[in-house]
Amino acid sequence: MIAEPNAACNLPSHKENAVRDETVPECTVQNNSSVRNGNLKTSREKRKVREQCENIRRNSSSSRRVSQLQNGEVVEAVTLFEVVSMGKRAMQCVVDDWVEAYKQDRNVALLDLINFFIQCSGCQGVVTAEMFQNSHQQDANRIHSNKMDVMQKMTETFDEETGLQYKKFIAYPWILTVTWPVDVSNEDYPVIRAGPYWKKFKANFCEFIAVLVQQCQCSILFDSYLMDTIISLLTGLADSVIRAFRHTSTLAAMKLLTAVISVHLNLDVNKHNAQRLYEVEKNRISGKKTNYRLDQLERKRKEYDQKLVEIQNMMHAIFKGMFLSRYRDVVPEIRATCIEEIGNWIKTYPDVFLNDSYLKYIGWMLYDKQAEVRLKCLLGLQGIYSRKELVSKMDLFTSRFKDRIVSMPLDKDHEVAVQAMKLLMLMSQNCEDVLSAEDCETLYQFVYTTHRPLAVAAGEFLYKRLLSHEGGEEVLCKGEKKVGAKTDQLKRLIRFFLDSELHKHVAYLIDSLWDWAGKFLKDWECMTTLLLKDGEGDGKVLNDDQESVLIEIILATVREAAEGHPPVGRGAAKKILSVKEKKIQSEDCTKITEHFIMVLPQLLAKYSTDAQKVANLLQIPQYYDLDVYNTGHLEKHLDALLSEIKGIVAKHSDLSVLEASSRTYYILCSEKIAIYSKVDCARTQLIDELMGQLNQLLDGFWQKEEGFCTDAGEISRMHSALRRIAAFHNAHDLTKWNLYDKTLKLLQFEMEHGSLSVLVILPALQCTYFSLLWQLAAAAENSAKKTLLALRRELRRFSEICMYFLHHKDKDVREKAFTILCDWLLILSHQDSNNNEEAVGLLDYLPSTSLQEKLLFFIQEHVFVEEEEGSKGLTEEEERKDKSCKFDNLHKKRSLLAAYCKLIVYNVVEMTAAAEIYKHYVKTYNDFGDIIKETLSRTRHNNKIQSAKTLILCLQQLFQTYAESQDSSTGADLSSASFTNMKELARRFSLTFGWDQLKSRESVAMIHKEGIEFAFQGATGTDGKCLPPNLSFLLIISEFSNKLLKPDKRVVYDYLQRYVVEPLPCSRDKWQPLILYRNSLLANEDEESSILGSSGEWPPVGTSKALPFKRKLSNGSLPETSHTEAASQEAALERASQLTSAGGRSRKRLKSQEKHLKERLPLRCPGGLQRRRSKDEIKTEDVSVKGQAEDTSEDVDIDVVGAEQDN
User: Fold this and answer.
1) Quick one: 782 exposed, middle or buried, by C-beta within 10 A (0-12, 13-18, 19+)?
2) Listed GO molecular functions (predicted)?
3) CA 379, CA 373: separation in Å to the nearest integer?
């Protein structure tokens, strides 16, 4: 019986898998190790050999027999492969048993070992062995001719007729022929299989080889038989075209050489010891002619020399026969294995391998296309550069490949980049001046990368190269300040950040250094002392820029210590802290609170006039442990803090400062802590003062009106007052001050007169919006119906105000109104109904069709509009300002687009509105591609079918615009830039579906269905004599053909054929889009492509002939009869035009291949050339989108592929 090639991957459970070893000069091994006599002449001799071998088999296998329960039966493991794969016994015992069997009969043991390697390759075929040299052949000419004949037969072939693979090669002293059935598409074998069991098997396999060499080093390793056989076997397997053989044998050979090197090192030590003893003995007996001890040591020394020569020959044979041919193998795993092991050889035996003859292979493979191979190179080099005694021999390698290593932190594979940075760290430590200043400056910038492991590795490089200092970090000085070391270290950090002009991300820099300089970065006392220092002439005082950076560093370190996770943008999710980390975090929060409660008021007082510094300092209290105020009796410091904040609010109108102040009050006003009453009183007092100022200004405004609007001073004061109140109204409920009526009156005045300043309109809009939000939140909890109705009127009124300001003359007002309106609609349409369903029902508000159109028009006018290039002839300073302005404008546009896309994603506006957004996907990809792509992904998650219809609607609208711009007499220009851009857009849409074709099956099918119907719109009659005007649209939807499953391509093809009349009446050139589209649907169908190649015409549905496909072996049996493939193809081509029933057979074949795909696709009979509206199309008047159930309610009358039976 011939087993399947992967049967070895499962533990043997049948008795025919047991070993029956018999040995003869020529032998055949079948069913893993069953040997039949092929040369003994008499039956008596045969019987004698069989009895001897049976005794050997029983003795050798019984000692390593292992039982395992599988499928309710006890399975006895008697082969090496079974014992090693089960891993039930110590590997040394397994090897000892095999060595004992080898000493009794080396042929039987070696055949068992040969089958072990064959089975580890995933093959359980037939192994045939015959002697390479016959002992009776003494004639040299005959021996020479025999060798030449054997070399000519060293082949590897595949018999397509039988489906068997043959591999013939020399494994001294045998010629082995391995025969096994092959599934060409199968790339699964034990050493690459996933899962803990197979990982353990691979480890056991490598351990077996190492232990085998170790146990044989004092006995049979040097018998000129064992190693010759193993090396020739592995060399023969490594030359195979079968990946499993090459990979397994290469892994074995590399581990074998590693083990042999260990033996070589032991022999070196023994030889050195023997030499020393010889010298001592020789000196001791000087003058005597002879000595038995001296002769014995001399023989021992010569024996070691001979063994070393044999070991070196083995090493050269493996390296030249295996490594040199396999380190460039097409399989990356094989290349990685070779590079990993040569790195181990260099570290283990540097006297031989640490030279440029071997290092060059690692250097060359640094340029490998596969990340796995590059990673092994870097890991190997790390082991070398970490040892200073080896670095001195690396000068030539370093000079040759340094530039490549310096560039590898930019590698697209994150792990390779991280290990490259670690290698450069080792090179910097152990190689003097190997990295130039330019190299270091380049590597320092990686602390700002978003990939945290790489940033941390770069942080280590930066800290040890630039920031660390000689001596200890804990040097203290008597008095209030710390001595130079930490201050200088801090200044170097500040200087580095200021010199990094390309990056302004302090949080990223601190996070990169946190693991290496955490203790230094938590020294807030040293930092604040440096800030509060007023001394002159001592060189310790910082300038303004350095103070700003140091304050940012303080804030970043406080945030890192209190939160315990990386900053936003670095890391996918928040880190789950361990118990120890939580304890450290709690201690750090307490330390932060105790220190900054006393110091922060002083810092705020010193920098009260600097908006940027104050805004950063005011963020520190949010990380306080507020209970410390009571437990530490520190209320006086709270009074100082509140006093400073009140003064800052009065001084500043900068939004960042006001928002930070408002948030600080919000943090301190927690009702759960004891200081709430004091902070609430201070807050109320502050708001009273702010409202008093605003009321005074409003009174003056209503008295003067037009005169007020022309007074710049009054407008500035009004602007500041409204900004302060808006900032506090965002976090605090100011409803009791009746702010809504005051700001609403201002907005109504602007609507009537249009003379109000923009500086007043913007904060007034914001205040009105916040006032309504607080009222809405209060009404949702519990309010009377009368109150709800009144609030409903106010909501409608505010929406009308926002719509009015969408057309304001000032751009900032229009953008602010649009942003507020989008957020307003989103909030009103997604209220929480758990508390008060009646309130939700009354206050619910969805945009009308006209409002949706206005919002979409606003996006088109303000986002997707090209700005004029007017930066020519500007000075450097003007260009910098112009560039900054463009970045600000881009940020505003992205915010506007994101606000509108949220309305689409959450079904506030119709999904079909997204078609206008998708049109700009390719053209604006660099600016808005991420937002549009995320919108597409979210809408597809909400409703697959409707999302697909939106995509095809986008393409249809673009095509109609393109068709209107073309000359009707000349037809569509398929090479024009507009048409090419449409195809590119369709291709990008296709890429968004990903690799899971089954997941996107219905969506892609809907795109083809809608596209086919659109392409044939406008065709007159059913005779097809008039070319459809939209036929070129088929070229666009052909970009989605590769996302169709094989059976679905046939269904779409059949659906397409319902619109086509054969033969085509017009010139083939005019129907080229149809031909190309059909070609994309049948690209993977062998039978259709062969018919096209022979006849040059497209047959109608059902006229294709399914050609015979390659026969594959099933269950180890061969087909009884078969014709040659060439004859079948010739016959098929001759009958292609006459056959009409082969389509059913082709469908049956597809059915057998895709049995799990039984769903019905959303394709239906066109019923003529008029397109019918489906039930699930969204009407433009509707507010919400129908559910998924309605989306799949299309009528279907096209059978799924495979439904037809073979006639």
Assistant:
1) exposed
2) chromatin binding
3) 10
Sign of CA dihedral 1028, 1032, 1034, 1036: negative
DSSP reduced 3-state for 236: helix
Distance between CA atoms of residues 166 and 155, nearest Å: 8
Q: What is the DSSP string of 100-161?
A: HHHHH-HHHHHHHHHHHHHHHTT--SEEEEEESS-TT---HHHHHHHHHHHHHT--EEEETT
Cα distance between the two ends of the chain: 36
Q: Which candidate, 1085, 1081, 1099, 1097, places its Cα nearest to that of 1139?
A: 1099
**Helices 635-651 and 655-668, packing angle to 10 deg:** 150
| Mean per-residue pLDDT of the chain | 77
Q: Which of 3-7, 950-954, 1060-1064 has the lowest mean pLDDT?
A: 3-7
Between 326 and 1121, the higher pLDDT residue: 326
Q: Which region among 188-192, 664-668, 760-764, 837-841 has the lowest average model confidence (pLDDT)?
A: 837-841
d(CA 424, CA 385): 9
DSSP letters along 1131-1189, please?
Answer: HHHHTTTT--SHHHHHHHHHHHH-TT--PPPS----SSSSPPPPTTPPPTT-SS---HH
Reported pTM? 0.75
Q: What is the dihedral of CA 238, 240, 243, 244, to 10 degrees?
A: -70
Cβ pair 1008, 993 in contact under 8 A: no
In terms of phi and psi (left: phi > 0; alpha: psi -120 to 50; beta: otherwise), the region of 1061 is beta
H-only helix segments in 32-105:
43-62, 80-86, 91-104
CA distance to 239, 352, 388, 400, 558, per residue, from 395 (Å): 36, 17, 12, 9, 45
How does pLDDT run across 1149-1169, given as a tens digit for each residue?
A: 333 334 443 344 444 433 333
- Asked if omega into 173 is within 30° of 0 (cis), the reply is yes
List the beta bridge partners of residue 181: 164
Predicted pLDDT of residue 1025: 56
Residue written as tokens 């090639």? Answer: 5
| Residue 720 to residue 713: CA distance in whole angstroms | 11
What is the DSSP annotation of 970-1001?
A: T---TTSHHHHHHHHHHHHHHHTT-S-TTTTH
- Rg (C-alpha) for the chain, rounded Å, is 41
**Rounded distance, CA 966 to CA 860, Å?**
24
- Identify the bridge partners of residue 167 per DSSP, sorted by sequence position: 156, 178
List residues bridging with 176 in a β-sheet: 129, 169
As given in the structure block, the two tokens for residue 109 are 């043991």
What Å distances lie between residue 114 and 178, 430, 489, 1111, CA to CA? 11, 46, 64, 31
Three-class secondary structure of residue 602 per DSSP: helix
How does pLDDT run across 737-775, given as a tens digit for each residue? Answer: 999 999 999 999 999 888 888 999 999 999 999 999 998
Instruction: Indicate if the pLDDT at residue 27 is higher than 90.
Output: no
**Rounded Cα distance, 76 and 82, in Å:** 9
